[in-house]
Amino acid sequence: MLTLVTEQIIATTAFIDMVDANTADPRALAMRDRVRDVLADKLAEAQRAGTARADLDGDDLLLAVSMLAGVLAKRPAPARRVAAARVWSLLRRGMHA
Q1: Is 71 left (phi over 0), alpha (psi -120 to 50) or beta?
Q2: Collapsing DSSP states into helix, strand and coil, what is residue 52?
Q3: What is the maximum span of the chain, computed from C-alpha positions, in angstroms?
Q4: Burial class (CB in 10 A: 0-12, 13-18, 19+), 47
Q5: How far is residue 53's CA from residue 65's CA, in Å, rounded to a whole number?
Q6: Per-run averaged pLDDT (10 residues), the chain, 97 residues
Q7: Radius of gyration of the chain from Cα atoms?
Q8: Is the separation of the CB atoms in 69 and 15 below 8 Å?
Q9: What is the pLDDT of residue 6?
Q10: From CA 66, how far away is CA 62, in angstroms rounded?
Q11: Which of 36, 45, 81, 90 is most buried per CB count within 10 Å?
Q12: pLDDT at 17
């Protein structure tokens, strides 16, 4: 799931705006909440498998996605994939059990 979200962020700034916590658009907020819920479901699976820290929740993953979006929004499109890989490499270290 994180791979799919990352691909969407790399491909479009509209997705970046959607995960921005500062938006007031109710449609974007609903979509952001839906993404958080899907991420939380996938996180629960990883926690049951013992591959993700037990203290993480969907809001933590949404924050990580938002941080990634913030980084990628400042990069030209050709540089986003490399930057995304570096960001996730750093974040995964803190998320794994």
Answers
A1: alpha
A2: strand
A3: 38
A4: middle
A5: 17
A6: 69 66 77 88 93 93 86 89 91 84
A7: 13
A8: yes
A9: 72
A10: 6
A11: 36
A12: 64
Write down the pLDDT at residue 18: 65
Provide the pLDDT for residue 13: 62
Amino acid at 18: M
* CA–CA dist 37, 79 (Å, integer): 29
Contact yes or no for 19/65 (Cβ under 8 A): yes
Map residue 2 onto helix, strand or coil: helix
Q: How many beta carbons lie within 10 A of that of residue 3, not counting itself? A: 9
65's tokens: 């996605």
Give the CA angle between residues 58, 63, 16 to the nearest 5°: 115
Asked whether 87 and 9 are in contact (CB, 8 A), the reply is: no
